[in-house]
Amino acid sequence: MSTKQQLAIRTETDLKQVLAKEYMKAIENFFGDPQLAREFLSNVVASTQRTPKLLECTPESLLNSFVTMASLKLMPSGVSGEAFVLPYDNKKKLPNGTYEVVKEAQFQLGYQGLVTLFYRAGAKSIVAEIVRKADEFSFVNGQITHSPDVFADDRGEAIGAYVIVELQGGGRISKAMSKKDILAIGEKFSKTYKSDFSPWKSNDPELWMWKKTVLKQAAKLVPKNETIHRAIAEDNKGDGIMPAREERSNWQIEAPTAMDLTEHREALEACTTAAQLERVWADLPGDAKAGLTATRDAVKAMICKEAEAVID
Length: 312
Hints:
Layout: H1 3-7, H2 12-31, H3 34-50, H4 59-71, E1 83-93, E2 99-109, H5 111-120, E3 123-132, E4 136-140, E5 143-147, E6 158-167, E7 172-178, H6 179-189, H7 208-218, H8 226-239, H9 248-251, H10 258-269, H11 274-283, H12 286-289, H13 293-311
Antiparallel strand pairs: 1-2, 3-6, 4-5, 6-7
Helix pairs in contact: 2-3, 2-4, 2-13, 4-13, 5-7
């Protein structure tokens, strides 16, 4: 994609047109349904209308965020809470040593989106609940017992949350966290915790962010799933959470800045065969791959689509 095309994004319609022109084949391939791909583009427009400051973000970060979302087969959310793209002010260091503030868009995974990915990966059932002060609750050796009086006039303040994930192949994963631990993670790591667009604020009466935080921690205990861990890695870029060094290759994070990726992205986009794409990808620096996964998937999808058309 040319710089001129990127700089043309000034309105919701511009964004939709660039996505449709440059990424439509890939988006259709991600969703496996042209109708869902068109629905995705309509939701992109609605999403930017709800959050106009997204149009102030760098075009590259905006496009990458929505393509990442499409690659996970999630829709921009209004009510569903599957996934979001939010604007952030990021400090960038200039060659002269000074800093400038750049507004960038960032993909954020919603609680419902994480649940969707768990079920796609084969979870049999997921229970996520808030524990309140008057509830009867115990957590002993991974076994959770929770007996709330759901008809009580006042169950008291929320004091924690837990999730129980049953796996298709048998087995159960349980994770419980206190209010203190949940909020400590939010305050320390989440960029959205104090922002104007924060889902942590009082417009979250069901405390979805609490449930999401506990479910993300539980994800470390379930069998490895590339899609779930890639989604969490992308979400963590917004939260600022860095997994332990030995886990980073699996979580696919530590992307360089957008400017550092330009040359590598162009090399990927120039590929016309799967073999060529594989060679270029293998030659990329390890720390660049994290920020280019969506681009690689988009190019791969287009190559596959074109190959299918030739066969037909």
